[in-house]
Design brief:
The protein is α/β, with parallel strands linked by helices. Helices cover 32% and strands 32% of the residues. The chain binds 1-O-pyrophosphono-5-O-phosphono-alpha-D-ribofuranose (PRP), uracil and magnesium ion.
Length: 209
């Protein structure tokens, strides 16, 4: 596995704004999408291209490059992952969306899966899994297990904030998966929240706090 901490100044600035205690739902939502968009730009840097012939504006035959193969599926983890989806799709508007639903039990911190609907030919696609928070890593590992059970082998994870504990957990169970994060924070508190973190990302995106 490789951990990519994307230290671009725009990302650092936007994550800093997201950490403000009294941020509005509107601002948090906008920023989650904006950072999701910038992470997508980084995570797709090395995807493969193939040549394609077109007729150009001047009526010449021209070779251009286009993304190779069955292309991409974006995998938002409900609920909070939906908060990054528009930002990701702004760069890859033709991507199929595979939705998984998991929540973290508040007592045990174990993931509970309640929904899945995957795009066709998922075994041939690059999957970009999106969730704002990688805390213990339980939710992400369960999602990666679900994808791999359907034959998906090419997977990247995009999160806004990661805890070292979660990164280590995903690294142990899924060493083939690359993680792209806007920030690697200090640690988890006793309730499994990332410190300094963002608080409850799902509540902030949906206005349910
Ligand atoms: O790494 P973990 O310890 O598993 O925690 C991370 C998960 O917790 C949050 O979801 P939550 O359970 O709050 O569900 P929600 O998105 O519906 O709010 C977050 O969006 C991740 O999915
Ligand atoms: O810090 C955390 C941990 C899990 N889920 C969140 O929304 N935030
Ligand atoms: Mg939540």
């Amino acid at each position: 596995m490789a951990l990519h901490i994307i230290n671009h100044p725009l990302i650092q600035h936007k994550v800093g704004l997201m950490r403000e205690a009294n941020i509005s739902t509107k601002s948090f939502r906008e920023l989650a999408n904006e950072v999701g968009n910038l992470l997508t730009y980084e995570a797709t840097k090395n995807i493969r291209l193939e040549p394609r012939e077109i007729k150009s504006w001047s009526n010449n035959t021209l070779q251009v490059q286009s993304i190779k193969g069955k292309k991409i599926t974006v995998v938002p983890i409900l609920r909070a992952g939906l908060g990054m989806l528009d930002g990701v799709l702004a760069l890859i508007p033709g991507a199929r969306v595979s939705v998984v639903g998991l929540y973290r039990d508040e007592e045990s911190l174990e993931p509970v899966a309640y929904f899945e609907k995957f795009a066709g030919s998922i075994d041939e696609r690059l999957a970009l899994v999106i969730d704002p928070m990688l805390a213990t890593g339980g939710t992400m590992n369960a999602t990666l297990d679900m994808l791999k059970a359907r034959g998906c082998t090419n997977i990247k994870v995009l999160v806004l904030v990661a805890a070292p504990e979660g990164v280590a957990n995903v690294e142990e169970k899924h060493p083939d998966v690359n993680i792209y994060t806007a920030a690697l924070d200090s640690h988890l508190n006793k309730n499994g929240y990332i410190i300094p973190g963002l608080g409850d990302a799902g509540d902030k995106i949906f206005g349910t706090r």
